[in-house]
Amino acid sequence: MTSPTPVPGDVEVVRVERPASGGAVGRLSDGRVVFVRHALPGELVRAVVVERTSRFARADALEILEASAERVTPPCRYAGAGGCGGCDLQHASVPAQTSWKAALVGEHLRRIAGITRDVRVETFPAPQGSRTRLRCAVDDEGRLSLRSVRSHELVAVDPCWLPTELQARKRIYISRKLRRCSERLG
Questions:
Q1: DSSP labels for 75-123?
Q2: Would you say the pTM of this structure is higher than 0.85?
Q3: Which residues is 18 bridged to in the sheet?
Q4: How far from chain centre, in Å, is Cα 13?
């Protein structure tokens, strides 16, 4: 007898196997591949299914039942299920983040280009304020916002951990000016 196919909203316990784009890879109770955001390889997590396709599912880790030694407390309060769509690896130590990124680049090179190569990822001395590009929006109340993952829904972030303080203030100022112009024209 096979397990029923999990649907969005179902909660499952998943053993995470390896890193991937869009979340760490595990398997649901029916054997379907699932990409679990906010989980690390080797972890056992309780995850909520948020999307299902004919080939795979996506889920958010709700509870870490067995944590990786590489797990850290995210510095940003918006990193996690229900938060903004950025900062997917803040729950991992810096060495784990660079290892994850190197594994992905190496896998893409092998799969897409047929090149086998060891990949090394350089890190910034201080990740906070290191983002050079950030796509922001301003919500109806004029607050700096980022989009929820795979959505147009805005999540107000005050403050955002990634840009420098000056970058964040500039984005708010410019976005408010643009909003006022579009309201006058629209």
A1: SSTT-STTS-SS-TTTTB-HHHHHHHHHHHHHHHIIIII----------
A2: no
A3: 25
A4: 20
The domain segmentation of the chain, as residue ranges, is: 131-186
The answer to whether the beta carbons of residues 143 and 158 sit under 8 Å apart is yes
Amino acid sitting at position 54: S
Is residue 145 within 8 A of residue 83, CB to CB? The reply is no
Alpha carbon distance 143, 138 (integer Å): 5
pLDDT one digit per residue (tens) for the chain, 186 residues: 456 889 999 999 999 999 998 889 999 999 999 999 999 999 999 999 999 999 999 999 999 999 999 999 988 888 777 777 777 788 888 889 889 889 999 999 999 999 999 998 887 665 554 555 667 777 888 777 778 787 888 888 776 666 656 666 666 666 666 667 667 665
Residue 125 structure tokens: 């001395």
Could you please report the per-residue DSSP string of 35-73?
A: EEET--TT-EEEEEEEEE-SSEEEEEEEEEEE--TTB--
